[in-house]
Amino acid sequence: MANPPTLKYTCKACGTPIRIKVPQQPRTITFPCPHCQTAATVKLPGIEQVRAQMAARAASQAQSTPPAAPAVNSPRPTYVVNTPGNTPAAASPTPPPQPAPGFSPAPPPAPRAFAGSAPTQPWKPVAVHCARLVKIGKLMNKDYPLSEGTVVIGRQDANVPSDISIKDDPYISRRSVSIETMREPSGNCAFRLRVLKTTNPVKLNDMSLVAGSDTFLNFGDIITLGHTKFRLEPGK
Protein backbone atom coordinates (compact mmCIF):
# COMPACT_ATOMS: atom_id res chain seq x y z
CA MET A 1 0.00 0.00 0.00
CA ALA A 2 1.49 3.32 -1.10
CA ASN A 3 2.07 5.97 1.53
CA PRO A 4 -0.17 9.06 1.34
CA PRO A 5 1.62 12.20 0.09
CA THR A 6 2.60 14.93 2.51
CA LEU A 7 2.59 18.70 2.07
CA LYS A 8 5.09 21.15 3.52
CA TYR A 9 3.77 24.22 5.35
CA THR A 10 6.09 26.98 6.59
CA CYS A 11 5.24 28.57 9.95
CA LYS A 12 4.59 32.28 9.36
CA ALA A 13 5.89 33.16 12.84
CA CYS A 14 9.25 31.38 12.95
CA GLY A 15 9.75 29.98 9.43
CA THR A 16 9.87 26.33 10.56
CA PRO A 17 8.83 23.92 7.76
CA ILE A 18 6.17 21.41 8.88
CA ARG A 19 5.08 18.26 7.04
CA ILE A 20 1.31 17.65 7.00
CA LYS A 21 -0.28 14.43 5.80
CA VAL A 22 -2.80 14.97 2.98
CA PRO A 23 -6.32 13.97 4.15
CA GLN A 24 -8.64 11.85 2.04
CA GLN A 25 -11.13 14.74 1.78
CA PRO A 26 -10.48 18.54 1.79
CA ARG A 27 -10.64 20.06 5.26
CA THR A 28 -9.34 22.89 7.44
CA ILE A 29 -7.14 22.09 10.45
CA THR A 30 -5.66 24.15 13.29
CA PHE A 31 -2.46 23.05 14.99
CA PRO A 32 0.44 24.54 17.03
CA CYS A 33 3.88 24.98 15.46
CA PRO A 34 6.15 22.38 17.14
CA HIS A 35 8.94 24.98 17.32
CA CYS A 36 7.31 28.22 18.51
CA GLN A 37 3.82 26.90 19.49
CA THR A 38 2.11 29.56 17.34
CA ALA A 39 -1.33 28.32 16.25
CA ALA A 40 -1.84 28.02 12.50
CA THR A 41 -5.01 27.33 10.51
CA VAL A 42 -4.48 25.63 7.16
CA LYS A 43 -6.97 24.65 4.48
CA LEU A 44 -5.82 21.31 3.07
CA PRO A 45 -6.79 19.89 -0.32
CA GLY A 46 -7.94 16.26 -0.58
CA ILE A 47 -5.57 13.53 -1.72
CA GLU A 48 -7.32 13.14 -5.09
CA GLN A 49 -7.15 16.92 -5.70
CA VAL A 50 -3.38 16.96 -4.95
CA ARG A 51 -2.72 14.04 -7.26
CA ALA A 52 -4.81 15.59 -10.03
CA GLN A 53 -2.95 18.92 -9.76
CA MET A 54 0.44 17.18 -9.83
CA ALA A 55 -0.55 15.12 -12.87
CA ALA A 56 -1.92 18.20 -14.69
CA ARG A 57 1.27 20.19 -14.10
CA ALA A 58 3.42 17.27 -15.22
CA ALA A 59 1.38 16.91 -18.41
CA SER A 60 1.54 20.67 -19.07
CA GLN A 61 5.32 20.73 -18.73
CA ALA A 62 5.66 17.66 -20.96
CA GLN A 63 3.77 19.49 -23.75
CA SER A 64 5.53 22.85 -23.40
CA THR A 65 9.13 21.67 -22.90
CA PRO A 66 10.72 19.66 -25.74
CA PRO A 67 12.90 16.79 -24.51
CA ALA A 68 16.66 17.42 -24.67
CA ALA A 69 18.70 15.20 -26.97
CA PRO A 70 20.66 12.60 -24.97
CA ALA A 71 24.45 12.89 -25.04
CA VAL A 72 26.45 10.33 -26.98
CA ASN A 73 27.16 7.17 -24.97
CA SER A 74 25.17 8.63 -22.03
CA PRO A 75 22.38 6.52 -20.46
CA ARG A 76 18.88 7.89 -20.79
CA PRO A 77 17.61 9.35 -17.49
CA THR A 78 14.99 7.41 -15.56
CA TYR A 79 12.96 8.11 -12.45
CA VAL A 80 12.64 5.36 -9.83
CA VAL A 81 9.28 4.77 -8.16
CA ASN A 82 9.66 2.89 -4.87
CA THR A 83 6.63 1.08 -3.45
CA PRO A 84 6.84 -0.75 -0.09
CA GLY A 85 7.23 -4.51 -0.48
CA ASN A 86 8.07 -4.39 -4.18
CA THR A 87 11.26 -4.09 -6.22
CA PRO A 88 11.75 -0.47 -7.41
CA ALA A 89 10.73 -0.17 -11.08
CA ALA A 90 12.15 2.25 -13.65
CA ALA A 91 9.58 4.59 -15.18
CA SER A 92 9.76 6.60 -18.40
CA PRO A 93 11.39 10.04 -18.08
CA THR A 94 8.85 12.64 -16.99
CA PRO A 95 9.27 16.13 -15.58
CA PRO A 96 9.04 16.27 -11.77
CA PRO A 97 5.48 17.02 -10.52
CA GLN A 98 4.71 20.48 -9.21
CA PRO A 99 3.31 20.98 -5.67
CA ALA A 100 -0.22 22.07 -4.85
CA PRO A 101 -0.62 25.87 -4.46
CA GLY A 102 1.09 27.03 -1.27
CA PHE A 103 2.65 23.65 -0.44
CA SER A 104 5.72 21.57 -1.33
CA PRO A 105 5.18 17.76 -1.33
CA ALA A 106 7.89 15.88 0.58
CA PRO A 107 10.20 13.82 -1.67
CA PRO A 108 9.62 10.03 -1.77
CA PRO A 109 12.06 8.00 0.34
CA ALA A 110 15.12 6.77 -1.56
CA PRO A 111 15.52 2.97 -1.88
CA ARG A 112 17.53 1.68 1.09
CA ALA A 113 18.38 -1.70 2.56
CA PHE A 114 16.26 -2.67 5.57
CA ALA A 115 17.93 -1.84 8.87
CA GLY A 116 17.55 -5.49 9.89
CA SER A 117 19.55 -6.83 6.94
CA ALA A 118 22.96 -5.97 8.40
CA PRO A 119 24.38 -5.30 11.89
CA THR A 120 23.98 -1.69 12.99
CA GLN A 121 26.53 0.38 14.88
CA PRO A 122 25.85 0.97 18.61
CA TRP A 123 23.59 3.95 19.16
CA LYS A 124 25.60 6.93 20.47
CA PRO A 125 23.43 10.05 21.08
CA VAL A 126 25.16 13.40 20.59
CA ALA A 127 24.72 16.55 22.63
CA VAL A 128 22.14 18.17 20.29
CA HIS A 129 19.05 16.02 19.72
CA CYS A 130 16.44 16.51 17.00
CA ALA A 131 13.61 14.87 18.95
CA ARG A 132 12.66 12.59 21.81
CA LEU A 133 10.92 9.23 21.61
CA VAL A 134 8.88 9.09 24.81
CA LYS A 135 7.91 5.66 26.14
CA ILE A 136 4.56 6.17 27.85
CA GLY A 137 4.52 4.30 31.17
CA LYS A 138 1.85 3.62 33.77
CA LEU A 139 3.60 5.63 36.49
CA MET A 140 6.26 7.60 34.61
CA ASN A 141 7.54 8.15 31.07
CA LYS A 142 11.02 7.44 29.73
CA ASP A 143 12.77 9.55 27.08
CA TYR A 144 15.00 8.24 24.30
CA PRO A 145 16.74 11.15 22.49
CA LEU A 146 16.89 10.89 18.68
CA SER A 147 19.89 12.29 16.81
CA GLU A 148 20.89 12.00 13.15
CA GLY A 149 21.06 8.37 12.02
CA THR A 150 18.96 5.21 12.40
CA VAL A 151 17.89 3.47 15.60
CA VAL A 152 16.17 0.07 15.82
CA ILE A 153 13.50 -0.60 18.46
CA GLY A 154 12.49 -4.08 19.62
CA ARG A 155 12.13 -6.59 22.43
CA GLN A 156 15.26 -7.14 24.53
CA ASP A 157 17.19 -10.18 23.30
CA ALA A 158 20.94 -10.72 23.73
CA ASN A 159 21.10 -12.76 20.51
CA VAL A 160 19.08 -10.25 18.44
CA PRO A 161 19.94 -6.85 19.99
CA SER A 162 18.17 -3.56 19.27
CA ASP A 163 19.40 0.00 19.81
CA ILE A 164 16.38 0.64 22.05
CA SER A 165 15.58 -2.64 23.84
CA ILE A 166 12.29 -3.05 25.71
CA LYS A 167 12.39 -5.79 28.35
CA ASP A 168 9.00 -5.40 30.05
CA ASP A 169 6.74 -6.22 27.06
CA PRO A 170 6.92 -9.77 25.61
CA TYR A 171 4.48 -8.77 22.85
CA ILE A 172 7.03 -6.58 21.02
CA SER A 173 8.85 -8.29 18.14
CA ARG A 174 12.64 -8.46 18.13
CA ARG A 175 14.05 -5.61 15.98
CA SER A 176 10.49 -4.55 15.22
CA VAL A 177 10.87 -1.04 13.70
CA SER A 178 13.52 1.55 12.88
CA ILE A 179 13.41 5.36 12.99
CA GLU A 180 15.73 7.29 10.67
CA THR A 181 16.47 10.90 11.63
CA MET A 182 17.59 13.16 8.76
CA ARG A 183 18.66 16.80 9.05
CA GLU A 184 17.41 19.06 6.24
CA PRO A 185 19.43 21.96 4.75
CA SER A 186 17.23 24.33 6.76
CA GLY A 187 18.53 22.76 9.98
CA ASN A 188 15.24 21.06 10.86
CA CYS A 189 14.91 17.28 11.14
CA ALA A 190 12.68 14.77 9.36
CA PHE A 191 11.80 11.38 10.81
CA ARG A 192 10.99 8.20 8.86
CA LEU A 193 9.48 5.10 10.48
CA ARG A 194 10.18 1.74 8.80
CA VAL A 195 8.53 -1.53 9.87
CA LEU A 196 11.04 -4.40 9.95
CA LYS A 197 8.96 -7.15 11.55
CA THR A 198 5.27 -7.53 12.47
CA THR A 199 5.04 -10.90 14.18
CA ASN A 200 3.37 -8.82 16.88
CA PRO A 201 1.19 -5.72 16.18
CA VAL A 202 2.71 -2.43 15.00
CA LYS A 203 0.50 0.68 14.78
CA LEU A 204 0.97 4.36 13.94
CA ASN A 205 -1.77 6.28 15.71
CA ASP A 206 -4.83 4.10 14.83
CA MET A 207 -3.40 2.59 11.63
CA SER A 208 -1.92 -0.92 11.54
CA LEU A 209 1.35 -1.21 9.59
CA VAL A 210 2.78 -4.19 7.71
CA ALA A 211 6.40 -5.32 7.41
CA GLY A 212 8.29 -3.38 4.73
CA SER A 213 6.16 -0.23 4.93
CA ASP A 214 7.59 3.16 5.84
CA THR A 215 6.19 6.62 6.48
CA PHE A 216 7.30 10.03 7.72
CA LEU A 217 6.47 10.98 11.32
CA ASN A 218 5.12 14.20 12.80
CA PHE A 219 5.50 15.43 16.36
CA GLY A 220 2.69 13.99 18.48
CA ASP A 221 2.40 10.72 16.53
CA ILE A 222 1.84 7.61 18.67
CA ILE A 223 3.71 4.41 17.78
CA THR A 224 2.35 1.21 19.34
CA LEU A 225 4.58 -1.88 19.55
CA GLY A 226 2.85 -4.82 21.26
CA HIS A 227 1.38 -3.27 24.42
CA THR A 228 3.91 -0.40 24.59
CA LYS A 229 3.24 3.11 23.29
CA PHE A 230 5.81 5.71 22.21
CA ARG A 231 5.19 9.40 21.36
CA LEU A 232 7.44 11.54 19.15
CA GLU A 233 8.15 14.93 20.75
CA PRO A 234 10.56 17.82 19.96
CA GLY A 235 14.04 17.48 21.44
CA LYS A 236 15.09 19.43 24.50
Please, could you describe this protein's structure?
The chain has two domains: 1-67 and 79-108, no CATH class; 130-234, Tumour Suppressor Smad4 (Sandwich), CATH 2.60.200. The chain has one helix at 47-64, and strands at residues 6-10, 17-21, 27-32, 39-44, 79-81, 89-91, 131-136, 142-146, 149-155, 164-166, 177-183, 189-195, 202-204, 207-208, 214-217, 222-225, 228-234. With 236 residues, it is mainly beta.
Properties at a glance:
1 helix; five-stranded mixed β-sheet; globular
SSE blueprint:
Elements: E1 6-10, E2 17-21, E3 27-32, E4 39-44, H1 47-64, E5 79-81, E6 89-91, E7 131-136, E8 142-146, E9 149-155, E10 164-166, E11 177-183, E12 189-195, E13 202-204, E14 207-208, E15 214-217, E16 222-225, E17 228-234
Parallel strand pairs: 9-10
Antiparallel strand pairs: 1-2, 3-4, 5-6, 7-8, 7-17, 9-11, 11-12, 12-15, 13-14, 13-16, 16-17
